[in-house]
Structures are given as C-alpha cells and as structure tokens.
Amino acid sequence: MAPKRPEGAGAFPKPVESPAPNLPDPSELYAALDLGTNSCRMLIAQPKGNQFHVVDSFSKSVHLGAGLESTGRLSRGSMRRTIQALRICQQKLKRHKVKRMRLVATEACRRARNSRDFINQVRRETGLRLEIIQAEEEARLAVISCAPLVSTKTEQLLVVDIGGGSTELVWIDLSGVPPMQRPKAIMRLHTGFSQADSPFPVARVVDWISVPLGVATLRDQFHDVTDDAARFALMSWFFEENLAEFAPYKDEQPREGFQIVGTSGTVTTVAASHLGLRRYDRTKVDGLRMTSEQIDKVIRGYLDLGPAGRRRDPRIGQDRQALIMSGSAILQALLRCWPTDRLSVADRGLREGLLYAQMSADGVLEDGPF
Questions:
Q1: Cα gap 130→103, rounded to integer Å
Q2: Which of 96, 132, 262, 352 is the S-S candidate for 145 at Cβ 3.0 to 4.6 Å?
Q3: What's the pLDDT tens digit per position in 262-279?
C-alpha cells in the first residue's frame, strides 16, 4: 500500500516505495543511476498511473570526488570504491532484466581530467555505460523530479539541488500557466528548458545556474579554518558571492506566490532534525514545508553541538558531520537572498527526474489530474 501523503506536499501522489507485491514484467521496468561526487544511487521502477512504483534501489557513499579539489583527478582509491558499488548495481539490473535505463555521472566526472579513463574502466569491469551529463541537464532533471511538490498557487518557483560537487538553481515563471496545470507544466520540461514550440501553457525558465560548490567542494575550500562557527560563516558568505550573476538575484522579488523547493541530503537531514526523527522516515520528510525560523533553529543547534556532537547525532553521523555544515551554509545563504519564509523539502532528485523523463518520453505515464 502506498504511504500516506503528508499535508502540504502538493496535489499529486509520490512514488510508491514499498516492495512490489508481484514480480514485475521486465519489459515494464526502467532504471536510473546517479553517480555524484559523494554517492552512487540507483532506482529500478515501473510506471504506475501518473507516477512510478519503485521495485529496487541502491545507495552508497563512494566519495568519488575525494581529493579532486587539489589534484584535478579521480584517485585510484575512489575509483576502486565506486566500481565496487557499480558492480552491485549491475547485478541488480541483471537480476531484474532491465533494458531501459539511463546511467549518468555528474560534477566529479565533469571536472576530473581522467574521467574518460574512469568511464572506460567502468565499462570494461562492469559492462555499464555511464554517461557524463552537462550541468543544464542535471538542473532540468532535478526540476522535473520536484513537479509533484509545486503548489498550484506558485507563480515564481526556485528549485535548488545541493549536490556533492555543485549546486544547481533554476528560477521558473509559472504566472502564465493556469494554476491547476502548473505541476504538469514543470513535468513538460523533460524535453528541455526552451518550450517555445509547445502547444500548452509553458513554464518559463527565467534563469538557471550551476555553482561549482556543493557540500564536499565547499567544505574543501575552507578545510584549513579551525573554528567551527567561523568556517560556517565564511562558507555561507562565499557561496552567496557566487550567486551574484544569477539574474533573479539582482532584483527584489515579490513574496506572494513565491516557492523554494530544496532537494538534497542536506535539506532532508535538516527536516529530519526539525521533526526529531530518531529513524529517517521519507513519508514524513518529502513534501514537508519548513519556515526559515525552523531551519535557522536547526542550524544553530548543529553549531551548538560542534563536530563531536554532530558525529554522535543519529541523523547526521560520523561521515556527514562536516558535510551537513557546508550544506547548511548553502541553505542559509539561499534563505538570506530570496523573499520567502518557507522551503518545501524534496526527498527526490536526479534519479527520479531520470525516471520521469524516460517514462514521459515513452508515453507510459497516465495524463491524469495532479
């Protein structure tokens, strides 16, 4: 049974992630793999109505971009860890006999001088054909994954995807789209940001930017600053400086009808901390709307804990205690820049966008009401 939809999560239902009751027909399956700077994640799913049903999944921290900031190359150790994870993905794809798939790599492979050698090594050792996608496509896929969370009252939308190596921001004008069609207009962006030839009312992309600073790369910029609070402040202001050329940033925007949707491990971790969850629960986090005061309170709590306290926090843990602060610095900068006191939390991202795009292109999603 599908988990209950949280209030405020938008009008259309989320992907069902409980185990499939029956073994699905392989001809109906789609797969999406996202190899980022920190993590390797994969979903295998089948279309279900105007959404999809997750059949199998995989997620593992591989730290592919470890050392990239200083060397410009993927290290042997990080490539070895990543290939081990990709072997597991390959076994899952083989077990489910998946034929339709997109397997993509993002910022770490875009930047590394030896990324092509790595891609070829992956193909030799696992049989998987990884595709390095450009920042615009990564931003577009993150946007369409968040379509279910777009309010019908939203006229100006900012989607923020905080990754390990980069942060994508996309500003969309929905004022020319009838309210009930706004989520669907976002979904139609799977064909590209330019919708000039569309026969439907279009979501107009005002501007987008890919900032080469994510939770790992921003952390590495200030690794030599020993004071926790000083490092956090420097990271936040440094990230804001990198937004100066983002067009909507230059002019004051109206507060009414404005929505920010944030998708990343940072945003979902902050949401879990706000809710006081001892065990992560996607059904409580995805679609949650948090006020800026609530987010600030969580971030202040992280600073009060300090590095040792954050390591002991079950919602953060040993591996992520430093990354949560760089991610929180990005989040704080965004809320300082734009006219909103609320943020919609999205536990979804590139993998979901890849699935929506493939299924939409094949016409296998129902065109039902959202």
A1: 5
A2: 352
A3: 998 899 999 999 999 988
Tell me the β-bridge partners of 51: 48
Tokens 């150790």, residue located = 77
- CA-to-CA dists, residue 256 to 8, 103, 137, 160, 342, angstroms: 17, 39, 29, 19, 11
pLDDT band at residue 131 using 50, 70 and 90 as cut-offs: very high
**CA nearest 131: which of 113, 145, 116?**
116
Q: Which residue from 176, 153, 66 is spatially nearest to 111, judged by alpha carbons?
A: 66
Q: Which amino acid is at 216?
A: A
Ramachandran angles phi, psi of 118, nearest 5°: -65, -45
Residue labelled with tokens 């929505």 = 259
From the list 38, 35, 120, 31, the residue with the least C-alpha distance to 86 is 35
The DSSP-derived string for 97-139 is T--EEEEEE-HHHHH-TTHHHHHHHHHHHH----EE--HHHHH
The pLDDT of residue 148 is 86
Task: For each of the domains in the chain, give its residue range(s) and CATH number, in order of start.
Answer: 26-134 (3.30.420.40), 137-346 (3.30.420.150)
Q: What is the pLDDT of residues 291-304, one digit of tens each?
A: 999 999 999 999 99
